[in-house]
Design brief:
Length: 505
């Protein structure tokens, strides 16, 4: 069956009975070829005839949860560094450039040592060291060819060159015309084998600025960070992916190199390639360009488990902005048997204008500018089911809290209707069908599923499992997980205004 006929058939069957979905889904039936090199690097090859470009997604099992104490933000920082080039890419004279790195690092290490003295640090010395570091980095920059990777790819018709870092992993992606596909193998193998951490300390400053813009000056970002830190007291899901300021400022080139050595081995990488490709040729190039890279350390999953919560946790976060509230409940990971029903619950409550909370709070009563529900911050480990709501004055976060609890209690008493369940199933099916025609989203889904679960079809299987969720399942997970003792609440509040000088008359 052609892609277009398959898509049409699925769309026509959106309202089919749930039992029909027990058969393998269209995603599970994709003709994906899995090819594993002797060094453990995994390639997922999907031929789509007629696709104008080929999408490449590389995902490493290297996310925020994999950082050790003192280097938070390194996963994200390394994502930046992988665009800086190699000994042959992005440099005019690598030998001369390399000779400068020890001098630069020595000044940076001295600055870090002084910074860590805290209140007793010599601020004048720190200023001199910062100036010296800036001068040395500027001097090394004479050897740098900026953005050479981007320039080469753009000249060859590349699109969507980018990367992203999450709690669970880091991915790199772009698309190329089919007749330029070998270029991906040339460039990607080079930067996986021998990245150069050039302009390291200036890029570290860039990440610091990202943190400032995303968290420190952004009310939602600040509230989310504080909320996750309150919800996770042991598990690293409580650490921000962008990093903690003091650790970003002090992470060294050597620690970042160690992070690369530990997590960026080919055995911790999954590559998904989707488009009008010759799978046999892809295998040959995989062998030619990647097979010679030695395998790294095997991935070491996080062993820390978040202990059970024994009482509600509440925090106020002061920020001069409109109030908002986040409410979270600890729930299992994305492949737990409860996950499909939890996904259904989120949709029934906030999935679209006709969902319960959206209809009540946003559309009908106009108490809230928005209300949403989802599961965060990752998928691999147990996480939190989170509500976020923003009130419209004069209504308050307390009113929105009460409304959310009322709807949760209602579902615990009365299961959702058949109409609500079918609407959710249809939405999931439509989303699944839509992704089948998009090479990039397919590649992204394949790589993520394989990297997380060692099974490229797992996320498609999850979509199929959703079709078998019953109203009783939704009611059961609501009763199981949504208790007050399992709840964390973070509220954004305005700081108190100082009393006017001189008092009042």
């Amino acid at each position: 069956m052609s892609w277009h006929r398959l898509t049409a058939a699925l769309v026509l069957g959106l309202a089919a009975a749930p039992l029909a979905a027990q058969q393998p889904s269209a995603g599970e039936r994709l003709p994906v070829v899995k090819y594993v090199l002797p060094n453990g690097m995994t390639f997922l090859l999907l031929r789509k005839e007629g696709a104008p470009t080929v999408s490449f997604v590389t995902q490493f099992r290297a996310g925020g949860v994999d950082e050790w104490t003192g280097i938070s933000g390194t996963a994200h920082l390394f994502e930046h560094m992988l665009f800086k080039g190699t000994p042959t890419l992005g440099t005019r004279d690598y030998a001369a450039e390399q000779r400068m790195f020890p001098r630069i690092d020595a000044v940076a290490d001295s600055l870090t040592a002084e910074f860590r003295k805290g209140a007793s640090a010599d601020t004048a010395l720190m200023t001199r060291l910062r100036n010296r570091l800036r001068i040395l980095e500027d001097s090394a920059r004479q050897f740098v060819v900026s953005n050479e990777l981007d320039r080469i790819l753009t000249q060859n018709g590349a699109q969507n060159l980018n990367a992203s870092t999450s709690n669970d992993g880091t991915n790199y992606f772009f698309a190329l015309p089919a007749n330029r596909a070998e270029l991906w193998f040339v460039l990607e193998s080079d930067r996986v084998k021998s990245p150069v951490l050039r302009e390291f300390y200036s890029e570290r400053d860039v990440v610091m600025e990202e943190r400032r813009l995303r968290v420190e000056t952004q009310p939602f970002g600040l509230l989310r960070e504080e909320f996750l830190q309150a919800a996770f007291r042991a598990h690293p899901y409580g650490r921000p992916v962008v990093g903690v300021a003091s650790e970003i400022q002090t992470v060294s080139r050597s620690a970042t190199t160690e992070y690369f050595r530990r997590y960026y081995g080919p055995n911790n990488a999954v590559v998904a390639i989707a488009g009008d490709i010759d799978t046999t040729q892809m295998k040959r190039w995989a062998d030619q360009y990647f097979a010679g890279i030695p395998a790294g350390e095997p991935y070491r999953p996080v062993v820390t488990q978040e202990p059970p919560q024994h009482g509600e946790r509440r925090i106020d976060v002061e920020f001069d902005a409109n109030p908002m509230v986040m409410i979270g409940y600890h729930v299992p990971n994305a492949v737990h048997p409860d996950a499909p029903a939890l996904r259904a619950l989120a949709s029934i409550l906030t999935g679209g204008r006709t969902s319960r909370l959206t209809q009540r709070l946003v559309v009908r009563d106009r108490w809230a500018a928005q209300v949403s529900a989802g599961q965060a911050p990752g998928s691999r480990y147990p996480r939190v089911f989170t509500f976020t709501a923003v009130p419209i004055a004069p209504h308050t976060t307390q009113e929105l809290e009460s409304a959310i609890y009322e709807e949760l209690e209602r579902i615990q008493r009365e299961p959702p209707s058949d109409f609500e369940m079918q609407r959710f199933r249809n939405a999931v099916e439509y989303g699944s069908v839509s992704r089948l025609d998009n090479s990039f989203f397919l590649a992204l889904q394949l790589a993520s599923s394989e990297a997380l679960w060692n099974d490229w079809a797992q996320t498609f299987r999850d979509d199929a499992a959703v079709q078998r969720v019953t109203a009783a399942d939704v009611q059961r997970v609501a009763r199981t997980h949504f208790s007050k003792t399992n709840r964390t609440v973070a509220t954004l509040v305005r700081p108190p205004r100082p009393a006017p000088l001189g008092g009042t008359n």
